[in-house]
Amino acid sequence: MAASPASVEGVIGPLGNCLTTLGFEVYPLKVGWYNSVLPPSFHLPYPDDTLAVVVLSTPAMFEQAFLPFLEQRGFHKPCDPVDQCVRHCVSSAVSQSFSELKVDVRYDYELLPSRKPKFLAQTAAHVSGAAFYYQQSDVTDQPWAEKKMFGVCIHPSFGGWFAIRALLVFEDVTAGSELLRPLPPDCVPSREDRIKLLEAFNFHWQDWSYRDIIPPEQTYSERQKEYFSTAPAQRLALLRTWGLLPNEPDLCPLEQSAVNGHG
């Protein structure tokens, strides 16, 4: 007997079936877990037991979803191509499997009118158990004095070779006691390695060395590395050289600004 769509199993099963083959992972969480570690200004406006799901892209997403999306001419300017691909994949999965449910879909690149992000991606990944969010407060006897160090998530299988793409809140689905809060795998347990990780992420993020803080099971392909190493303003031109976009002489807004460079 199939699980009701208004249950944790009834959401995670169909959503995973739609997205896993495209190179994504899905992790359930309760809204209350997320809200409990954040100040009220960042809270999601739903009851604590409301089901949410965080969506990650793995290294496989580039070849399994992004390149086919471009080959099928799914991209339309001026949006970022990867963002548009992710939106297409997620929205298709939601409309296919949950047409009768209210789903609040929030993407990592979206902002509220206040200019705050629609959700804090790394916090969502951490409380769902998907990836450990290493922050300055996780280092004892900090060597940085008063300097602010930004935190970063590390995935137990992919290290830093992944991205947090979306949060889906299933407004009418209650997650009961069967959904237990998991602990994210602490794959960088030592103080020395945490210092190394945060310094690599804050001071040398462009060389991507922080992504290899643990031996990853899979990394980005050479083509994917080339894409994300290219300045956002030049990525459409790169895709044209790959034959994935038609040649067009005029620049669009994406090519005139360096936005959405995340990978």
Structure description:
- The structure is a single chain.
- With 263 residues, this protein is an alpha+beta fold.
- The protein is built from eight helices and six strands, in the order H-E-H-E-H-H-E-H-E-E-E-H-H-H.
- The protein has helices at residues 8-19, 31-36, 61-71, 81-97, 121-128, 191-203, 222-229, 235-241, and strands at 24-30, 50-57, 103-107, 132-134, 152-154, 163-174.
- It is globular, with a radius of gyration of 19 Å.
- The model is unreliable at 250-260 (pLDDT under 50).
- The longest helix is centred in the middle third of the chain and has 17 residues, at 81-97.
- The N and C termini lie far apart (39 Å).
- Strands 1-2-6-3 form a four-stranded antiparallel β-sheet, sandwiched between helices.
